[in-house]
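Postdoc handover notes: sequence design on the structure in folder B. Input tokens:
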């Protein structure tokens, strides 16, 4: 049982009426999201859903050659486990913790029993699902049309929004998955941003130095995604 109101660090849970929040509270358990912790595996049963309080979770697509490509990110604005809401028990993708943090989680069985039509969370999660669909489709278009540098800045901004810190760990492996490029190209992309004074990247950690500069360098996809989240689930 969760004994702290800190579950409201998750924006979906914070938006619930007190009565519904208190009804769900006994079913929520603390979970530490360590770096590279896998929350669900490809084609394996999804046993729990997670509401991140801090940190960032990546949704990854697994290609035939085993390569992993990120298609979406989830932080304290959302929930990991949308397939369960939509009636699926497994999907071919993977969810993995990209930036360490914490979450509250509940079993799939409890989630299906408690989050039902005519509850606020059920309706809110359907709007959140649309917001995630918008993020994934916008990211797909962005990856095809915009430069690596623009995409890099967009993604760093999205992580900064969710990490709740100006500094967070980020390995070359994850940067390559994020951008869909080879690891050998990652250092070049990061160096350009660092030389411009936007970030500092050292020993697998990124420090945000110039947020406004990142926003000016990123493509408009960042604002499109952010605006849609705010429209559908409310501003932070």
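Designed sequence:
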């Amino acid at each position: 049982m969760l004994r702290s109101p800190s579950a409201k660090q998750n924006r979906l849970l914070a938006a619930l009426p007190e009565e519904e929040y208190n009804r769900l509270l006994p079913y929520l358990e603390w979970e530490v999201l360590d770096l590279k912790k896998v929350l669900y595996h490809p084609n394996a049963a999804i046993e729990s859903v997670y509401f991140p309080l801090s940190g960032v979770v990546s949704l990854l697509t697994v290609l035939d050659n085993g390569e992993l490509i990120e298609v979406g990110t989830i932080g304290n604005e959302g929930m990991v486990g949308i397939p369960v809401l939509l009636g699926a028990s497994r999907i071919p993708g993977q969810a993995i913790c990209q930036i360490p943090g914490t979450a509250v989680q509940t079993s799939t069985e409890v989630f299906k029993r408690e989050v039902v039509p005519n509850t606020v969370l059920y309706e809110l999660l359907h709007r959140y699902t649309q917001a995630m669909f918008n993020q994934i489709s916008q990211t797909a278009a962005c990856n095809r049309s915009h430069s690596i540098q623009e995409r890099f800045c967009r993604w760093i901004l999205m992580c900064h929004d969710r990490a709740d810190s100006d500094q967070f760990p980020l390995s070359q492996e994850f940067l390559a998955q994020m951008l869909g490029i080879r690891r050998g190209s990652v250092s070049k992309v990061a160096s350009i941003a660092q030389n411009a004074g936007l970030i500092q990247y050292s020993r697998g950690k990124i420090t945000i130095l110039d947020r406004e500069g990142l926003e000016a360098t990123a493509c408009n996809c960042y604002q499109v995604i952010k605006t849609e989240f705010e429209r559908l689930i409310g501003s932070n």
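Context for whoever picks this up: The chain is about 45% helix and 20% strand. Don't rerun without checking with the PI first.
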